[in-house]
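PT: before anyone asks, these are the final sequences, not the draft ones from last week. 971 residues across everything. Please model them as a single complex and drop the result in this thread when it's through.
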Amino acid sequence: MKWGVVRFPGSLDDGDALHALADVMGQDARILWHKDESLGGVECILLPGGFSYGDYLRTGAIARFSPIMKSVAKFAGDGGLVIGTCNGFQILCEAHLLPGALTRNRSLSFICQRVFLRVENASTPFTRATKQGDLLQLPIKHGEGLYVAPEDELRQMEERGQVILRYVDADGRESDHANPNGSMRAIAGVANERFNVFGLMPHPEHAVESMLGGTDGLKIFQSIAGSAR
Amino acid sequence: MSERPVSLAGEPKADVEQARAFGLTPDEYRKIEQIIGRTPTYTELGVFSVMWSEHCSYKSSRIHLRKLPSKSELVVQGPGENAGAIDVGDGWAAVFKIESHNHPSFVEPYQGAATGVGGILRDIFTMGARPVASMNSLKFGSFDHPRTRYLLGGVVGGIGGYGNCVGVPTVAGEVMFDAAYDANILVNAFCLGLVRKGEMMSAKARGVGNPVLYVGSATGRDGIHGASMASAEFDKESEAKRPAVQVGDPFTEKLLIEACLEAGKTGAIVAIQDMGAAGLTSSSSEMPSHGGLGIELDLDKVPLREANLTPYEILLSESQERMLIVAERGRESELQSVFEKWDLHAVVIGRITDDRRWRARWHGQVVADIPIGALANDAPLYDRPAAAHKTQPSVNTSIAKHPELSKALRALLDSPNIASKKWVYRQYDSLVLSNTVLGPGSDAAVLRIKNSKRAMALKVDSNPRACALDPYIGAVGVVCEAARNVACAGARPVGITNCLNYGNPERPEVMWQFVRGVEGLRDASLAFGAPVVSGNVSFYNETEGHAIPPTPTIAVLGVMSDVAKHVTQFFKNPGDAIAIVRTGKPSLAASEYSALFQIDGGSLNPIELAREAALIDGLVEGCEQGLIRSAHDIAEGGLAVALAEACFNPRAILGAEVELGRAGNADAVDFFGEGASTVILSISPGDVARVEKLFAGRGLEFAVVGKVIADPRLKIGSLDEDVSELQRIYEDAIPRRLRGGD
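LR: through. Structure below.
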């Protein structure tokens, strides 16, 4: 599968995503520069973590106006697969390619730790290598990952199966303690209505080698690779 | 041809009084007049005052720092550049350095700490190395001091705010709380980068006529005289120095990292240096001076944040995220197009000359014209008097009664100095760049090198209480501890960087502490064959006559040939033998136990460096042969605390059953003593004999004292504790205090 990893000024996990896809998984992956509009014929676009444009205004608020984001929006509109991790998720929400928004963590501080996630919908292109109820252990590292959306919208999202990942404890149960940032309904990852755009705060690209602490992130990327058209 | 430099209308008179206000002595002022053969302009006087400040000139420390060993077959770059470099194998050099940002962090903790991180990063990537790991060593006042929580929150927030945003993982660190730092906190920041050997960049200018490029952020009024602030004691007015603290912009720093590394690949960069302390002045004088050349600057070309900055302000500003580059003549545009791609300024502001003068023009007039050597290599040098304390610091002996063992263990685990620092390191991105094999919360961090089997181990350490009792033995002990921690991970120590934090060097007893500290560092460095390739001195850490305890902070780089052989501090399997290997007897001197319970710990035991080196050899060999399942260095809190920590395996907690020889007769020294280099090992029962041979064969004391058990209980002689309860105390000590539950 041909992947494009977008590099915004201030992207930080772009190199890690490229490493995970190309070096670890042997996928055809390349960097897409934010000032370009061409997507180079890729089949999946990954918006990486980081602090695009410094995120001094509001996370993702400036990146959504980047030249490449026009192409990303069109690509998504045509049904192309787009995944955003961390800052990428924030940008997708700002660009209205995903519902909801990400706000300051409940603790008001940056959190870097491994968390457990429960797969809530395994029939998406991003999760089809998993089963519903599977637990994934992935790291989070963010200061603004508290997911919010209007109650009505949340209810509809749940009904449609757009809530893909939820923060849980090691036994797969939801609890206040297991919700690291205070996200509504412990939501860690959501998809759009067409299920071709997926955003998540955890970092699958940082869980692809057992030496570095785990390989559950591969399940996400393998799902996507297996969904190639 | 030479024009006489002029002061500008409205500028104060540049006389001996103004010199004093800038922190120069009357003698230094007269030396300036002698060097330039006339009265300096106001701009020149300002320039001299920052370049001759202790912070920039190392005038009190240079003659002593020369004693430090800086050579080995692995040294790629010793002291003299922006950072040192060590060959770590497979064609890679590790460039690393530690630096203080103490004074600004006390005045404005968030920005002070943030810009400390930014400054040390620039020292690394100016060498052409990609920064891959940060560490920090933090000293705060007592947790009960009213300002400590504010300073802790600000400093940790600043380190995270900057480090997380530039995409360099913070992989290890240390945090200590002690009333001795109530009025002078320490923030020491370390960074390490990797560069292909042979692709390193330099800060030595060459080529008369080569253009000088200013790149990065525009210049504002922030940080003027920051270097002077860092060269003076604090007093009641220190709060008013906030404007001397710079403000960081990590986003621009990230762009600068990418742009500078990309620009380096063009081959058009002759020399590059960060505009750090003393800003444009230091970078523009040091690079040509190192190359035996001169420079002419056109200050009208400098990008400014506001229109009406004076030449004095432009030259002394410490605005962050700026670099100065000497380019190959005719290749400016190649570099400019790289910086343009990253939306950064890159402006030619001067050229290299052959007349060894440092000359600055502004609005058509010369405002400074100084023999360049006077600003850099030929700054004043002092051999300040050093004399030992007349009386040793008195030790509090008011409570001679030892607490009951179980209570003591719980109190120690609850001490912020021993307790888990998770509250701190959870706020740092330790994962970005995908190299972190072992992150914060272990003896040493372990970083893999991509496309290689090799790995690096990193540790930063200090022990001010020991250094206060004996500044020589204390410093030796700190190097031993950092080296041992690296060896506990399975890596051989190969290089050292140091940040020497002391009081006012004009006081003989402080100078004596410093000289003894340097001697300790020298001797330990020689013993381990690990040279000191970079470092930084921070004097004047004192307020109203009260100095901090001598605090040499030491960071050690270790290298292992096979990352798969790395070892952690945690017990792995029930049934494994627990063994202790050590170089001497423990004592309560300078221990957390004696500090906590106000017990006279006595004086430090001497350290035999040959035995320390043997211990490190044995550890590295044992790890390389895969004989050691876990290795944990005994530090604050002694054996009992170290055993508890080894049980706190994040995968699944375990227990330990240990007998201390003299059953039922063990005392506080056995349980909580520190000082002796002691390591707790866990070993598969079948390998015990081979491990014993490794250490006993080197003349070290080796004893199997117990075994790992599945039942999560810590049993040491008569002591029998629930490990999960101990872990709860250990994990909650700092959060509980911050919640105000104390």
